[in-house]
Each structure stands twice: as C-alpha cells, then as structure tokens.
Request: fold
Amino acid sequence: MFKSLREKLKNAVSKITKQVEETPEEIVEKSVEEEKKPSEEPVKEKKKISKVIKEKITTKRISDKKFDDIFWDLEIALLENNVSVEVIDKIKSDLKEKIVDKPIERKKVGNIILDSLKETIDDLFIENIDILKKIESKKPFVILFVGINGSGKTTTIAKIANLLKEKNMTSVMVAADTWRAAAIQQLEEHGKKLGVKVIKHDYGADPAAVAFDGIKHAESKNLDVVLIDTAGRMHSNVNLQEEMKKIVRVANPDMKIFVGESITGNDAVNQAQKFDDSIDIDGIILTKFDVDDKGGAPLSISYVTKKPILFIGKGQNYSDLKIFDKKDVLDNLGI
Ligand code: GDP
Reply:
C-alpha cells in the first residue's frame, strides 16, 4: 500500500537533505548543560551538579526563499499522489516553521524533516469513534450509507453486518438503492450468505419508504442495528441529492456514513465534502485501501472534512474490514 507515495517521499526527503547540506555552513556556539556523573558526586552533596559549557557545532540556516526551492520536490511527490492542496499547505507551513531561519545541525536535517512530516501527518486525523459502543446506546441503531456507485457501499454494509454478527449483535440490511434491480439482488445475496434479513421493495420504489419499513422491521424484531444501502448518486446530481435528504428526514439515522474509494484520491475527498454539505456526514469508510498505491485520500479526507475515518476496506471478503488507525497510514508511508 502507498508504495508510490512512500518511495517518492523517501526520494524527496533525501534530495532536500542534500540541498540543505549544500548551503553554506555556520559555526555557532550552543550552550550545553553538562551533568556530572553520579559516581563523581561527593557523598554528602545531594544537589544535582551541572555546569553550562559552550560547544561549537556546524549548522545550516535555510532562508525563506531557499525553503520554497527545497520544498518543491516534496510538493511534487505529494501532488502526484493525490494529496489535497490543503494538506500540502499544512505540511509546508509546519516544516517551514521548524527549519526556516533556524540553525540546524547538519547531521540532523533528514531527521528533522521526517519528524516534522510524521507530526504533521499524525495531526491530520480526527479521532476515531468507537462505533460498536455507540451502537449500544440506542436500539435499533440506524446507519445510513451514502456514496457514489461502485465505491463499495453494498460490500461494506455486508462486511459491517458480518462484524456485528461476530460481536453477537443483530442487524437488518435495507435495500434502499431502488434505482438498480441488480443492487437489490446483490444485497439479497449477501443477506443469504450471512444469514441476515434484507428488507426490499420493488425496483423503482420510494427509497425513503423502504428505509422506513426496515426500521419498523428492526423495532418489531428487537434488532440492534439497521444498515441502509442507498443508490450511488453522484454528488452533483441535484434531484438525487434531494431524494437523499428525504431518506434522511424519514429514517432519521443515528449515523450517516460516507463510503468512498481510497484509490480515487482527491475525487473521494471532493465527494465526501459534497455529501457532508448536503446531509452532514458523521464519518467516513475508505474502501479499496488494499489497492491504493498513492495514499492521497487517507491523508486528506479527514483533515478536509473534519470527520473521522471509521473503517478501511482491505479486500473483497467479509473479514476485510478494519477499524481505522492512523498508524496504518504512517506505517505504510515508512515514517
Ligand atoms: P456499490 O456500488 O457502492 O454498492 O459498490 P459494491 O459494493 O458493489 O463494490 C464495487 C466493487 O468493489 C465490487 O467488485 C467489490 O467487490 C469491490 N470492493 C469493495 N470493497 C473493496 C475493498 O475494500 N477492496 C477491494 N479490492 N475491492 C473492494
């Protein structure tokens, strides 16, 4: 995962390090507090003994203008891997603050850049929600899944139904994607495999009515969770967006989750923003993490929307769903 970004970041960091090394050296005096070793302490003397000494070190100083030149490679690496402009700006300003006009010890340049990147990336994510705990707070807990066609919504709903089953929670899946007969059929197949009931109406029916029936079913059977699949509407289609708002009004979900494909990078970020504008999403699931070479969407989507990434999809099997941990991103970037 993220092979392309990981390699480009590595190359950019080593190029920056080289560029910094080529800037003229400065010799500065650094005050160092020298502590005496305990063995040298007189027995009666309890106080810590230290003295300030001056040490000469070789440093580099990067000007504002030079910084723009040396950041260029990193900027290109990030842009090529679909990292959003907002996130690139943040990485740039954080790094700038750490290195511009500061004496940097020559040997530490590479580490300073990597540490700064790590800190900035670590900061990009909104803290995850413990969704299973949240589900226990209400019965039935209603979750609406939105996103464009092919993003992996139906598969993700089935993965969540499977996860709930593993946790001894009951659920019903609702085929409120009435636009495609195939979508209803696909959910039914998952239902059969998982032994989870699917509520459906005919192709072309009012999705809000199907959602309503799904909730009534869960109430009558005392089920824990209602998982509502919706039609893969384009975020730019006004009619479908209006229809989705109607589903939200009728179903009044406890959570609205945007499902997007990690591999689509900035497109997924833009879609999430649009869906958030229309129905105020609560969290994000990024699918196809397993085939994402670039990592732009995971790096950007939480920062741009200010919503947490809840899960990542890592394959086509039911068990290929993982609670999101930002360590997954950092580890895959090798920083
Ligand atoms: P929907 O139109 O949004 O409901 O999308 P589907 O659930 O039908 O998924 C579209 C395709 O993506 C299917 O072939 C899924 O098997 C595949 N898919 C879904 N999630 C993942 C994932 O995490 N990794 C991979 N590699 N494929 C996935």
